[in-house]
Amino acid sequence: GDSVTQMEGPVTLSEEAFLTINCTYTATGYPSLFWYVQYPGEGLQLLLKATKADDKGSNKGFEATYRKETTSFHLEKGSVQVSDSAVYFCALTGVSGGYNKLIFGAGTRLAVHP
Amino acid sequence: GAGVSQSPSNKVTEKGKDVELRCDPISGHTALYWYRQSLGQGLEFLIYFQGNSAPDKSGLPSDRFSAERTGGSVSTLTIQRTQQEDSAVYLCASSLERGATYEQYFGPGTRLTVT
Questions:
Q1: Is A90 in CB contact (< 8 Å) with chain B?
Q2: Cys-Cys with A73: which of A33, A34, B112, B115 at CB 3.0–4.6 Å?
Q3: Rg of chain A (C-alpha set)
Q4: Which B residues, 54 through 73, put their C-beta within 8 Å of a C-beta on chain A?
């Protein structure tokens, strides 16, 4: 079945450092890809998405490009802030099992210190 | 407008008791989803509603778990004869319609602890 693999955390960075969180997926057909973020004490929020190959999703300085050839959707940000400290989840909805459920990676905790 | 709300926010119950978890989706959202977030299993899909029907129940872990949705709005997830492995945060999400182009909005979750 469909699955998502993302790099284990925690990731610890200094403020203004460059961030990459790797995400790869296994799916039949052409899934849509998402990054969700969970800030401390808050619910899951959609950060960005891409619905077809070569699409780039972007929001709040974060970017991710849908790479079909490498089945990847890596999250990047050029300069992280303390306020970016959160848990980041890569996810897909795909053909197998329908388009109506999200399949999540295990999550990557990011800690940014001043 | 109001987001997805869930109640209770926390629930502690004894092993073997039944519990009901409630989800109020965003008004007008036809699709509703339940997920579970636990330390051992991460974020897992449980069940999906379109209107009042549940075309995908594939994630319910056992027959102790059931869910219903009434009036195309409120949903209740019921766990019978709770076990310690049921301890988790139960998340509800809703979207305007089914399909990947429609964002799923998540509630704050219900933290269930089975003692």
A1: no
A2: A33
A3: 14
A4: 55-56, 58-59
Burial of B74 (0-12, 13-18, 19+ CB in 10 A): middle
Read off the pLDDT of residues A78-110 as tens digits, 9 standing for 90 and up. 999 999 999 999 999 866 655 678 999 999 999
Region A58-70 average pLDDT: 97
CA distance A43 to chain B (A): 5
Cα separation, A1 vs B88, in Å, equals 24
Of A45, A102, A107, the CB nearest to B45: A102
Mean pLDDT for A43-57 is: 94
Q: Are B64 and B85 in contact (CB under 8 A)?
A: no
Note the pLDDT tens digit of each residue in A14-31.
999 999 999 999 988 888
Whether residue B64 is predicted with pLDDT greater than 60 in this model: the reply is: yes
Specify burial of residue B39 (Cβ count, 10 A radius: 0-12, 13-18, 19+): exposed
